[in-house]
Automatic annotation (TrEMBL):
Annotated ABC transporter domain residues: 8-255
UniProt organism field: Streptomyces viridochromogenes (strain DSM 40736 / JCM 4977 / BCRC 1201 / Tue 494)
Pfam families: ABC_tran, oligo_HPY
Protein name, UniProt field: D-methionine ABC transporter, ATP-binding protein
Organism domain of life: Bacteria
């Protein structure tokens, strides 16, 4: 099936925030990302804070322009399009849901105005059709009609996130990216919002990219899981295999440390903190914390290798064996030595 959105060697480099106005320091937020999202699939993105998950998400929906590399929508290079066309393509085919609906929604607009806005900007239908679409969107996300004239401040957190989801769906997108969509919500409403997203995805045939720190939820929601480390995609795995059959040592370590997935085991300990994204290590970025690293890892970033299952690939010179469970790995692993 042809890709809905495809990244080819996408890089995002920022000027470092911490280094002052004239700093030459650069943050390598995304490095050499190759990724294709197929229509209707759910792709989860995991990795520690600062590894580039949000940057990847923003590049996928055309909100952030890569410093280098291409983003193609249905085979067409997004950033080679004239700006008006790009806005039409991005606005009409993608939607984004952010972490905190209280800051993502304009506090001065009513729910009806918030949902009308994208329809007005993209000139969709007549006035009557737009009003009807607003009613339809509210019903789709389970918001009572009576809330149409409410301001975001008068809604609960869960209701606000429903408004944000409805807004993301207003133009009938093919792809929705949800960046930590439940982390600002009360635990009691998280499941409702996740179920709503899954239900909408099924009913509308959406492709969904789901970014979260909550690894259990990512695995449950996704068809495929992307692991990121220091700006790089280091593994892509079918969700069913990621917990205990991942090939990249980092994916194994991440999942071993997630309570409730592989209990009872001791998490695989990693040496030291994540290095700075301003000065990523040479070769494989994970090598400074990896118990398998050797000289080759310091010299060369490994390319992607295919695992035996379709859709499973990883970037590692010394991958974990496919038939080695994480429990066995923890038992047999040589004692960790600090690099
Ligand atoms: N506009 C910016 N200017 C400078 N640095 C930035 C900018 N945006 C992101 N970064 C840096 O780029 C790196 C990747 O950031 P990103 O937000 O994509 O990570 P993340 O994995 O989503 O993190 P988190 O899980 O904490 O949200 C981080 O080091 C971050 O500090």
């Amino acid at each position: 099936m042809s890709a809905l959105v495809e990244l080819a060697q996408a890089h995002v480099v920022h000027k470092a925030r911490s280094g002052g106005l004239f700093t030459r320091d650069r943050v390598y937020a995304l490095t050499g990302a190759d990724l294709a999202i197929a229509p209707g699939e759910t792709v989860g993105v995991v990795g520690e804070s600062g590894c580039g998950k949000s940057t990847l998400a923003k590049v996928l929906v055309g909100v952030e322009r890569p410093t280098r590399g291409t983003v193609s929508f249905r085979g067409r290079d997004l950033w080679a399009m004239p700006p008006a066309e790009r806005r039409r393509v991005v606005g009409g085919s993608t939607g984004m849901i952010f972490q905190d609906p209280s800051t993502a929604l304009n506090r001065r607009l009513t729910v009806r105005q918030i949902l009308r806005d994208p329809l007005d900007v993209h000139d969709r239908g007549t006035r009557a059709q737009r009003d009807e679409r607003v009613r339809e969107l509210m019903a789709l996300v389970g918001l009572p009609r009576a809330l149409a004239e409410a301001l975001p401040g008068q809604l609960s957190g869960g209701q606000r996130q429903r408004v944000a989801i409805a807004r993301a769906l207003a133009l009938d997108p093919d792809l929705v990216v949800a960046d930590e969509p439940t982390s600002a919500l009360d635990v009691s409403v998280r499941a409702q919002i996740l179920n709503l997203l899954l239900d909408l995805k099924e009913r509308l045939g959406l492709a969904l990219v789901f970014v979260s720190h909550d690894i259990q939820t990512v695995r449950r929601m996704s068809d495929r899981v992307i692991t990121m480390y220091l700006g790089r995609i280091v593994e892509e795995s079918p969700a069913a295999l990621v917990t205990d059959r991942a090939r990249h040592p980092y994916t194994r370590a991440l999942f071993s440390a997630t309570p409730g997935l592989l209990d009872p085991i001791d998490p695989i300990p990693l040496a030291g903190p994540v290095p700075s994204a301003t000065r990523p290590p040479s070769g494989c970025p994970f090598r400074t914390r990896c118990w398998k690293a050797d000289g080759l890892c310091g010299r060369e970033m490994p390319g992607f290798s295919a695992a035996s299952s379709p859709g499973h690939r990883f970037r590692c010179h010394h991958p974990v064996q496919e038939d080695e469970s994480t429990r066995d790995l923890v038992r047999r692993r040589a004692p960790m030595e600090a690099p």
